[in-house]
Amino acid sequence: MTAEDATKPRRTREFQTEIKQLLDIVINSLYTEREIFLRELISNAADALEKFRYHNLTGEGSSAEELPLEISIELDDKEHTLTITDTGIGMTEEEVIENIGTIAHSGSKNFIQQLAASDSKDLNLIGQFGVGFYAAFMVAKRVRLQTRSYLPGAAGCEWVSEGAGSYDLGPSEGLSRGTRIILELKDDTHEFSRAEVIKRIIRQYSSFVPFPIKVNGEQVNTVQAIWTRNKNEVTEEEYNDFYKFVANAFDEPFYRLHFTADAPLAINALLFVPKQNMERFGFGRLEPGVNIYSRKILIQQHAEDILPQWLRFVKGVVDSEDLPLNISRETTQDRALMTKLRRVITGRFLKFLQEQSQKEPDKYLEFWKTFGVFLKEGAATDFSHRDDVAKLLRFESSKSEPGKMVSLPDYIDRMKEGQEEIYFINGPTRASIEAGPYLEAFRAADLEVLYTNEPVDDFALSNLAEFEGKRMVSADTAELNIPAPPPQEGVESLDYDQIQDLTAWFKEVLGARVSEVRESTRLVESPAIILDLDGMMTGSMQRFMQALNEQMGDMGRKVLEINPSHALIKRLLSLREEDEALARIVAEQVLDNALIAAGLVQDPRLMVDRIYRIMEQSLARKS
Ligand SMILES: Nc1ncnc2c1ncn2[C@@H]1O[C@H](COP(=O)(O)OP(=O)(O)OP(=O)(O)O)[C@@H](O)[C@H]1O
């Protein structure tokens, strides 16, 4: 808004639907920790100050007046008001409409819709999401926001609302730059106009705000950037408080890494891993959580490039004096600098995780259960840190106790003489993997097999392709280089001609449902097994793709291998002569059972009739 607009009359506008829902939650459901409203408003004020300082330092835009960069809070214990003023970047009227009245981000919209529909309003989740400015309505019956943008010639405006569905907007003089928010406190929140209460809250939540915060003229916080201090001088409490500040958290961090480097870049970094993986709670994709500073001046909040995407759960700050304030993705030089910084920080962080996994393996497993999915994403997508990430992966295996996990280096240490491959097999649970046919040959040869449970596991391991020179091989690949189990004593097998005859017959019966039927050299107890012949997609990847696209029908090539020593298979040879119709039904069911064991059955209902018929025949023979 420009100066001429100052004569604009006041207008009333409706809030966007999601804002109404959000306000309803804020006003009606959040009473337990109402004091967080102050943290939210101070955090916005600090952001506005950081933005102004940044623009000022980089010479973009200017403000006519030299104002101290600070946040002041004035309390009126008689009128029961709290006024918070910052000399930050301010907003134009358009920006007010855009920022305070709409939520653009679709993930946040979804979250609010879900939250509005759920019974429990988990404060921790809302805290992570950040109700932001609207938290003011937890304590205020009416909120007035006056603001003037730092842009030359910008006019001031005022936004007023009682949080009930609409707000008024009109011109306002008074401020020369920045934002003032006046809270008219509710009858039951008068305590927030008392200085000692407000000072306590500031000390608790906002001690690390890098601008002075004054209450009735007296500075309350000690401005400090603890990441630049020596590790030995920072207390546990300071670290935890700082984490709460930087991660918008209410609890303590799970891991903390504070490190300093001089070469190849000067770096002070303080990184945290939270206790919870917020993506699990249906928040959608996490925003990056690390801020970049240069000599304690914020240059990018939630920086995209400082860590790879798959480390987006990490929170904290990275300060490097080698970075220019106006760092830009557009210039090659800056991009190269960021790449270098990212490589160093990522490498250091992965080394830290590796150390933790050795120092406190149980704690690391807890981390793995919460955040392992991100590391798998890294293993599947990030070539530059592949080996370091690979070391951090954990899986159960045929040689681990249930619930215990092994790493790839553990696996390699235990490998048999001459073993050149690392084997893995996917299944929904340990029990289902162990009951299936895939392990039989591995058991017989005493080879360890890693158990994977999610499709992402197989994508990660397949994309890794190898670890320390050993190829990753899914145990359901058709071409397997492992010794065949020795023949079982006293068990006859079909001869060569019989096998040829039977496999050809199977193929004729099953038609296009399989690409090949052949003799198996890897089965002991099971009559048949499904393998993939193209070697590209493991069974779990096929399952995943099928689930994504139901219309696609069967995917991937399927090889049915039959066990020529198994009584059922052997009996089929003669049954064909005696009762061709029954033999065909049994053959179909052998395939379906193998598909069930592979987790690849699309419609089990088709089997029902066939199973009844087999049961009927078998009972008829008994009677
Ligand atoms: N004191 C202020 N000065 C300037 N702009 C502000 C101020 N307070 C809020 N804003 C603007 O309003 C926007 C919305 O604020 P709000 O607190 O709702 O969300 P946020 O700060 O973006 O997110 P969050 O609080 O979750 O970090 C901010 O992004 C900012 O652009």
TrEMBL record:
GO terms for cellular component: cytoplasm. Homodimer. Residues 544-623 are annotated as: C. The keyword Chaperone applies. InterPro entries: HATPase_C_sf, HATPase_dom, HSP90_C, Hsp90_fam, Hsp90_N, Ribosomal_Su5_D2-typ_SF. The keyword Cytoplasm applies. Keywords: ATP-binding, Chaperone, Cytoplasm, Nucleotide-binding, Stress response. Molecular chaperone. Has ATPase activity. It is found in: Cytoplasm. This is Chaperone protein HtpG. Residues 33-189 form the Histidine kinase/HSP90-like ATPase domain. One of its GO terms (molecular function) is ATP-dependent protein folding chaperone. It holds the Pfam family HATPase_c_3. Coiled coil: none annotated. Residues 1-329 are annotated as: A. ATP binds at residues 40, 44, 86, 91, 99, 106-107, 128-133, 179, 329. It comes from the Bacteria. It comes from Pelotomaculum schinkii. Belongs to the heat shock protein 90 family.
